[in-house]
Amino acid sequence: MNFKEIEPKWQKFWENKGLFKAPSEPIPDKKYYNLVMFAYPSGDIHIGHFRNYTIGDALARYKKMRGFDVLHPFGWDAFGLPAEEAAIKHGIHPREWTLNNIEVSRVTLKRLGIGYDWDREVITCLPDYYRWNQWIFLKMFEKGLAYQAESLVNWCPHCKTVLANEQVEDGACWRCHQEVTRKNLVQWFFKITEYADRLLQDLDRLEGWPERVKAMQRNWIGRSEGARVIFKLDPERTELPVYTTRPDTLFGVTFISIAPEHPLSKTLSKGLPEEKMVNDFIESTLRRTERDRTAQGEKNGVFTGRYALHPMTGEKIPLWIGDYVLAGYGTGIVMGVPAHDQRDFIFAKKYSLPIKVVVEPHSQELNALELKEAYEAYGTMVNSGPFTGFFSFDGIKAITEMLKEKGLGDFEVRFKIRDWLISRQRYWGTPIPMIHCEKCGVVPVPYEDLPVKLPEGKIDFIPKGRSPLEDVPTFIEVTCPKCKQKAKRDPDTMDTFVDSSWYFLRYLDPKNEKLPFDPKKANAWMPVDQYTGGIEHATLHLLYFRFFTKVLHDLGYVRIDEPVVRLFNHGMVSDSQGEKMSKSKGNTVSPSDLIAQVGADVTRIAVFFAAPAEKEILWSEDGIGGAERFLNRVWRFFESALEQNEGEERPEKVWRKLHQTIKRVTEDMERFSFHTAIAALMELLNVLEEEKSKGKFARSVMAIYAQLISPFTPHIAEEMWEKLGNKSSVFQSEWPSYDPKALEESEIEIVIQVNGKVRDHLTVAKGAKEEEIKLKALDSPKVKNLIGDKELKKIIVVPEKLVNLVVQ
RNA sequence: GCCGGGGUGGCGGAAUCGGCAGACGCACGGGACUUAAAAUCCCGGGCCUUGCAAAGGGCGUGUGGGUUCAAGUCCCACCCUCGGCACCA
Description:
Layout: H1 3-17, E1 31-36, H2 47-65, E2 69-71, E3 75-76, H3 81-90, H4 94-111, E4 122-123, H5 127-142, E5 146-156, E6 161-163, E7 168-169, E8 172-173, E9 181-190, H6 196-201, H7 211-221, E10 224-234, E11 239-244, E12 255-258, H8 263-267, H9 275-287, H10 290-294, E13 301-309, E14 316-322, E15 333-336, H11 342-350, E16 359-360, E17 380-381, H12 392-406, E18 409-414, E19 420-421, E20 423-424, E21 434-437, E22 441-444, H13 473-476, E23 477-479, E24 486-489, E25 493-494, H14 503-506, H15 519-525, E26 528-533, H16 541-554, E27 564-569, E28 573-574, H17 591-598, H18 600-610, E29 617-618, H19 621-643, H20 652-670, H21 674-690, H22 695-709, H23 714-723, H24 740-743, E30 747-754, E31 757-765, H25 770-779, H26 781-787, E32 792-798, E33 802-807
Parallel strand pairs: 1-2, 1-26, 3-4, 12-14, 26-27, 28-29, 30-33
Antiparallel strand pairs: 5-6, 5-9, 7-8, 9-19, 10-11, 10-13, 10-18, 12-15, 13-14, 16-17, 20-25, 21-22, 21-24, 23-24, 30-31, 32-33
Helix pairs in contact: 1-23, 3-4, 17-18, 18-19, 18-21, 19-21, 19-22, 20-21, 22-23
The chain binds one RNA strand through helix 7, strand 11, strand 15, helix 11 and strand 29.
């Protein structure tokens, strides 16, 4: 049987029948929104995509047979840098390059037998879509959730654009791995920090999400509880707020450190003998790379010549500038407690600053002079004025409360997460719908003027470190919507992660020209019941789209405030050495080639059976051979079953195996254990072959077999279904259910253990009494031999399972 | 350092509720068919050990302990490994 020859026939059949079209509003209790991460069209579909999308496809087909209204849409994350790079390299316009790739990939997806509702296809680089990015941006601007600010931002010198925090991995650009530098720029941000607490807390509600994704998001959001403590500059009494999680160590402060980037650093020493040293230090520190500076270990600093007053004791505390103080976290100023913070300890030792012990472990005195490292644990407070004798936890509370009374501090919760920087200095993205007017300032583009379209024609894409749009006068030059004077458009485009933050809502109403989506339709389909994709977006897309959902919820456009009930992360597909596949390494496996060689169904089985869906696959051709062998056997058995008419008896063994298989496959589909579902189907085939099942009975078994295997091998299943005399699609049939009675065996094998070790087996009738089992077990010659004249202490009988004889 | 996964044959892995560890497959070895090969079919296999054989025995799910009649599964301590966060005060 040449499987690949029948595949186009069934693909056409499905398309003509509109098998995968979803209703615009589903039956409420029977809806299944089955979402897979849409694709960046960088060429053709690769094997990683293939794995992702066959999982989604198998689920869609299974759920349809279970009677659900299934929504299984697809689209393209079509903006992004590679399109511009291709434009520079090959002189093709990014749009043309992108749309060509989409064309090629769409055909491949169809040939892979993946069934989408293509009427809902979304392409983010088309104005139909990105105008709603602009619309949402304006809504967020109105709510104060989109704002422009000057700050030190991550800059990728290779991509020549800024990056959000989430897009810097280990100090390098997530896309090109070039080391990131810092720049002070005015950029647009989304205020995700305002949602930090909700994004964190609601993770607890996401029971259907993998623990590791939730852990990553918790780490990333980085909530910490502590206190703001205000030191005052001597003598001006300017406030120097610090953030600390250890107010209990407040009496141990012997210096204060300020980040070199902090504005105060430049001004504190003005006119003092220290001024030059301070300026030199700041300058040389700022010149160092982020990675170099944050390498743990060495700490450098310089004394400013100035002092601050301790909020409790009024003591004069020296002010230092320290290169280990992060400008972007807390207040950019920290209190130095060398006895109880390892970083402060190293710093104090280096510059011979005093060390003062204020917390001691239980029943042990610490001597500041003898400390080898900071004592960072909690303990009993000492040398802490009225708080001496308190335990740390009580001290934290009491000290913060007293600071609050004095107006010199308060409890404070801090997050590590920063606001989402969305400006990009590139062409191929959504224009930011803002106008800069000399007179009126920043003015939003009126809604009726949307979309702000990307200019067409000849554009110089070569990155120069500023947006290519800046050099397109027809785009940049506008009149101010307010004062009608000459003004300029914002030249930047949006981060493409904006596009992917709400595409799942556009699928629900893709042609809407009045709104990004109709809330009624959104409420009918949301939340997404199942989302399937890779783990790489754990703290990127998966954080951003939760944020967008909450914003759109707060704006009143969706009822739900979490987008996805159940999240599944499939494993990667690597080469046989475990190396990541890439075009440059030449170790890629092309799904298109595989379909051409062995067909889609064989490839699908091979990928499903290679490993549990959540684990990495080390790709090997051997898997293809095994899959092909299995499907050939299925087909051969199917044909032999069709041919013969005699043999209508229903052997109990096969009947039972059939129903066990229905049960197992059904349960395995529900728990995403596709490889064991296939193993169960292999076992059933083994039994069918062993028992040489034939005729009518075998045909009825094979009808069920076709249904059970159909999520994995849809084409072969349809072919079998048709040959069995059915006119409609196997996917319009009802998923088989098992008969619990068929699972019951009339005779049951029972294990006989002596002292917990299996020594013999016993066959008894179903429902045999304990007493009978005991007697039979004791009657076993093997058992008699083992027991001999030892004393029988106890007999444990687990009905229908085992009997354990305990002897001494 | 903190947080989260995971450790089972040569390999991918199974064991879903504490009850026969290794299902299913890959690779491998042996055999049948064939002039031959491919394809296909049959047989074998955790490790060690007694035995000519038939048939036995012991050990075995990262390590050490514990609970239990019974532990891959539960509890305690530890080791290794993968991933996330990390000069975050």
